[in-house]
Structures are given as structure tokens and as C-alpha cells.
Backbone:
């Protein structure tokens, strides 16, 4: 009997070990989904190419050098000193612009390096201190980086940092980037109207880089979809292919925006397809569509379509990411 009792004891202990992973699945809350989205945004910024490489110094020298050479050839063929002075003024102006652009690219690279290394709370704190001491308070690149780091700990603090950028004092593309980043935080916090007010002032035509334009478009699309302009959001988002390799690191953002847009245009079929794609990447992304009535600490119900929430909840429940004891909250 003793020998037969031992196997029974072992079989009783196995379920206890198997239950532990279910308890570990509890972090799939809306808070974790928000953190996953924030981490995705951080990784996107950290993965940006070297600003100096993007500048392509050799090509820049050729593009600037040839026109300047033509200006001087013409000036030398024209008699008198006026043409030479004009050529000199043009040369000085162009040289000044090049110096400014190179210095800006170097500052941007230094800022990007700080963000890349800040992968712990202590490292983020140190990086923020360096950004505040080594870069000017009005340096947009430093402000964006500081806000990106603060976003990991306190979204409202990051929002306040971004609001310090004077939109009428910076270049229009930079102002658009500030509006988009602020709108993203408002959306994470469930403040849809504030987000929509910001994105309505963004001009996507000012952004020539495909990835940058798509990143901003994802935020604009979500704000429009949740703010009552879903058809307009669909038209915008359908111009972008989330499966394009160029958009690999922002694919979750593009899919998330589409889910909202398709839900509010009653395109249930495409909405479900998008949710399945998001779940395949990471089921935690689905929690960002589930409101507080179903998951403690969930998202604000503002702009969340009931059917979108229902489908997301069912999919994430089937994935095992939500513990069974929380399923009684379904309505």
C-alpha cells in the first residue's frame, strides 16, 4: 500500500505546479498592456538610425558643393565686385546652415545614445539628469528624449515635459511630432478629446520619411476613430500597409489604430482580423481595449467600442492571459 500511495501523492502535487503559470498570467492587465505600448514606443525611438548617417555627409557635400561652384563660376565671369560679394554671402549662409545641421545631428545622436542605454529605472534617472544638465531646456531633441524616459514611470509627467515645447517657436515638423507624442499619451490616459484636438492640427504632408509619417498617422488615426471620425481614420490608415518591412517596429501601433477605426465603422470582420494579428504578436496588446469594468486598472471607456471590447476580452480570456477568477466581471 505504501508503494501505491507514493504515486498518488506525486499526481496530487503536479496540478499545484501546473497552477503556478496561471498565477503568473495575472500581469496581463490593462496596465501591462499600456506599458507594452509605451515600451514599443521607446524601442521605436531607440531603434532610430544614426542622425549623422541619415544626413549622408558625402552626398550632402556634393549636393551643396556643385551649386556653390556654379554660383562662383558665374560670379567670376561677371565683371565688377557685386557678383563676388553676392557669391560670398551665399557661401557664408550655406556654410552656416551646414554647420547648424551637423551640430543638430550630433546632438540628436548623443540624445539617442542616452535613451538606448536607459533600460532600468536607475539608468533612466541618470539619463534624465544628463539631458537636463548637458542640453538646453529648449532643445526639442532633448525634451522628446526626456519625455520618452519619463513615460516609463509617469505618463502625466512626460506630458507636462512635452507641453514645455513652444509649438509656435519650433519648425512645423517638430511641432507636429510634439502634438503627436502628446496625443499618444492622452490616448493612453483615455483623454480622447484632448488627443483629437492636437492631431487635427497635424499636417502629414510635412513628413517625408515613411516611418515617421506612419508613426504619426497611427496616432492621428486612433484619435480620429475614437473621437467620432472613424471613416476618415479608415481612409488614412488604409494607405499604410502594417506588414510592410519598413513599419516592422511600429506594426502594433498601426494595428491598434485600425482596430479602433474598423470597430467604429462597424467593419466587424476586419476588426476581428486585426485583433487576431495583435494577439499573435502579444496577447497583452488586447488588454488595451478592455475597460475598467472588466479589468481593475483598465483603460477609460471613452472611445472604446463595446463590440471591440467584447471581442478583445474573449480572445484574451481564451489565451489564458486573464485568470479565471477575474472572468466574473464580464457583462
Residues:
Amino acid at each position: 500500500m505504501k508503494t501505491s500511495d507514493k504515486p498518488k501523492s506525486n499526481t496530487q502535487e503536479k496540478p499545484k505546479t501546473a497552477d503556478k503559470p496561471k498565477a503568473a498570467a495575472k500581469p496581463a492587465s490593462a496596465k501591462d498592456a499600456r506599458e507594452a505600448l509605451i515600451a514599443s514606443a521607446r524601442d521605436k525611438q531607440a531603434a532610430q538610425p544614426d542622425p549623422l548617417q541619415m544626413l549622408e555627409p558625402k552626398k550632402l557635400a556634393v549636393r551643396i558643393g556643385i551649386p556653390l561652384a556654379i554660383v562662383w563660376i558665374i560670379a567670376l565671369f561677371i565683371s565688377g565686385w557685386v557678383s563676388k560679394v553676392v557669391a560670398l554671402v551665399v557661401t557664408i549662409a550655406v556654410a552656416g546652415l551646414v554647420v547648424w545641421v551637423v551640430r543638430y545631428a550630433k546632438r540628436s545622436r548623443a540624445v539617442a545614445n542616452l535613451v538606448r542605454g536607459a533600460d532600468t529605472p536607475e539608468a533612466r534617472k541618470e539619463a534624465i539628469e544628463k539631458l537636463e544638465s548637458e542640453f538646453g531646456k529648449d532643445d526639442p531633441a532633448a525634451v522628446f528624449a526626456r519625455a520618452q524616459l519619463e513615460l516609463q514611470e509617469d505618463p502625466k509627467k512626460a506630458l507636462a515635459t512635452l507641453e514645455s515645447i513652444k509649438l509656435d517657436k519650433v519648425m512645423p515638423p517638430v511641432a507636429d511630432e510634439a502634438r503627436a507624442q502628446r496625443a499618444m499619451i492622452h490616448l493612453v490616459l483615455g483623454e480622447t478629446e484632448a488627443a483629437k484636438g492636437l492631431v487635427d492640427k497635424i499636417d502629414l504632408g510635412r513628413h517625408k520619411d515613411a516611418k515617421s509619417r506612419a508613426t504619426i498617422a497611427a496616432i492621428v488615426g486612433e484619435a480620429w476613430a475614437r473621437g467620432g471620425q472613424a471613416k476618415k481614420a479608415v481612409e488614412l490608415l488604409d494607405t499604410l500597409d502594417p506588414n510592410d518591412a519598413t513599419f516592422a517596429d511600429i506594426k502594433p501601433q498601426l494595428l491598434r489604430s485600425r482596430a479602433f477605426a474598423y470597430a467604429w465603422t462597424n467593419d466587424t470582420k476586419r476588426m476581428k482580423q486585426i485583433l487576431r494579428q495583435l494577439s499573435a504578436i502579444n496577447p497583452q496588446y488586447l488588454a488595451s481595449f478592455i475597460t475598467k469594468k472588466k479589468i481593475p486598472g483598465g483603460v477609460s471607456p471613452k472611445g472604446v467600442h463595446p463590440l471591440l471590447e467584447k471581442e478583445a476580452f474573449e480572445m484574451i480570456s481564451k489565451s489564458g492571459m486573464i485568470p479565471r477568477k477575474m472572468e466574473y466581471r464580464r457583462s
User: Anything to note?
Assistant: Residues 1-30, 324-331 have pLDDT under 50 and may be disordered. The two ends are 50 Å apart (CA to CA).
